[in-house]
Amino acid sequence: MTTELRRRPPTLRNQRGIALILVVMALLCLTGLLVAYLAVSALEPQGTFSVTIRNDNGAADTPLTGLSSTTEPAMDTSPIADDNTTVIMRSAGTFSGVTRTVEVVVRRVALPPLPGAVDISGRHSDTSGSLSIRSSQQNVDMVQSMRSLHSITNWREI
Questions:
Q1: CA quadruple 72, 75, 78, 84: dihedral positive or negative?
Q2: Within-domain flag for 106
Q3: More confident residue, 7 or 105
Q4: How far apart are CA 80 and CA 57, in angstroms?
Q5: Is residue 69 part of a domain?
Q6: Total domain count, the chain
Q7: What is the mean pLDDT of the chain?
Q8: By C-alpha distance, which of 18, 62, 37, 25 is closest to 154?
Q9: Is residue 122 a part of any domain in this protein?
C-alpha cells in the first residue's frame, strides 16, 4: 500500500516569516524618520556672535553713557578700575552673511536695604548663651554689594 504525500492548503493561521517582515518594516520607518530629521537640521540657520565688555573711560563714550567728569557718578578715567559700576558691552552677530553690532550700557544698581533679621536654620535653636548681633558698615557694604541689579540704561545699533 502506498500513501501519497499531500500538500496541505495554506491557512491564515500560518505565521512563519511574519516577524522578519515586521522588523524590516520597522527599520524602514525609523530610517525614514532619521532622514527627515537630518534634512530638517541641515536647513536650520547658522550664525556666529561675539561679546566684548569694556570700561567707560573714553570721551567718545559720553554720548552713550551720559556720564562725564562732572556728573555723579563721574565717568571712569582708567580702563582697568570700574569705579562708577558702568560698563559698555558690544555684541556682534553674523547671520546669513549680514553682520549687526549692538552696544549696550550696563549699570549695577544697588537694591534698597533690607530690614535686619536673624535667621537660624533647623527645627530647634538653643540660645542659652549670650547672642549679640551688631551692625557694622562693613557688613552693610558686604550685603549691599551682593544684592544688586544690572540695568541697561542705553543702547545703540552700529
A1: positive
A2: yes
A3: 105
A4: 9
A5: yes
A6: 1
A7: 76
A8: 62
A9: no
Q: Is 152 in contact with 105 (CB distance < 8 Å)?
A: yes
Q: How confident is the model at residue 25 (pLDDT cuts 50, 70, 90)?
A: very high
- Domain assignment of residue 91, yes or no: yes
Q: How far apart, in Å, are the Cα atoms of 18 and each of 15, 29, 30, 59, 60?
A: 6, 17, 19, 81, 78
Mean pLDDT lowest among 31-45, 66-80, 125-139, 142-156: 125-139
Cβ neighbour number for residue 54 with a 10 Å cutoff:
14
What is the residue range of 90's domain? Answer: 47-112+142-157
Q: Report d(CA 32, CA 14) in Å as an integer.
A: 30
pLDDT at residue 68 is higher than 60: yes
Q: What pLDDT does residue 64 have?
A: 84
Closest CA to 87 of 79, 97, 98, 96: 79
Asked if the model's pLDDT at residue 9 lies above 50, the reply is: yes
Q: DSSP string of 106-147?
A: EEEEEPPPPPP-----SS-----S-------HHHHHHHHHHS
pLDDT of residue 29: 96
